[in-house]
């Protein structure tokens, strides 16, 4: 990354929340309030929103009316259930006026560096129509994973296991998929005062028997039934 570009956790730059909400809103709609709510949950303990920023160097002092930095992109990273060394990347976006100039690549490369520096080895993502972009950056087609949409720093691995149980012994009713407990568990966290319930985003990968998996067709679909490509990259 060049000297003027930096990738920064959004929670370290709260003054950029509004600009970020606008960027996401222009691409995917939803209310400003719901976007802001989601962005405000960014933390080092995931989900983490990262912003690609261009700051003006000493050789190019900002004009009085210019903001001291420009927002070039956004991604959100979440933990992946049962894959302690993986992160899930979503809400990848570059402002419309700045696309096609290499910032999308810089955003993804800087995100990979950030994830590696935090000890993660693999990035997963989904896309409806940008599979060629991601393939160009080294991502390959992959199987679905489960995303932890919200993980409070106060939630212990034990609490997560309870809320992720496949079936309730009391009711015998089937529940969501259980992470394999033989896999390395989530990093230990401090014992909490009563924790908020974890909200788990359960993946819906519905395989259609006849469909092959390649960059033009996918056996998976999203919650609305639209075809979706699952991809990953070892970093
Ligand atoms: C997808 C997106 C982030 C790409 O950002 P960008 O700044 O336009 O991409 P870049 O200019 O950095 O392109 C990087 C490389 O990917 C290639 N590329 C870009 N879009 C591509 C596409 N749709 N298919 C194939 N290659 C593509 C470029 O040619 C470039 O190649 P090079 O680095 O070898 O020259 C941007 O288009 C965007 O924000 N789109 C709307 C939101 C969105 O759909 N996000 C993805 C959600 S899954």
Automatic annotation (TrEMBL):
Gene: NAA80
Record protein name field: N-alpha-acetyltransferase 80
UniProt domain N-acetyltransferase: residue ranges: 5-158
InterPro entries per record: Acyl_CoA_acyltransferase, GNAT_dom, NAA80
Organism: Apteryx mantelli
SUPFAM superfamilies per record: Acyl-CoA N-acyltransferases (Nat)
UniProt-listed Pfam families: Acetyltransf_1 (PF00583)
Disordered, as annotated region: 169-193
CDD domains linked: NAT_SF
Domain of life (superkingdom): Eukaryota
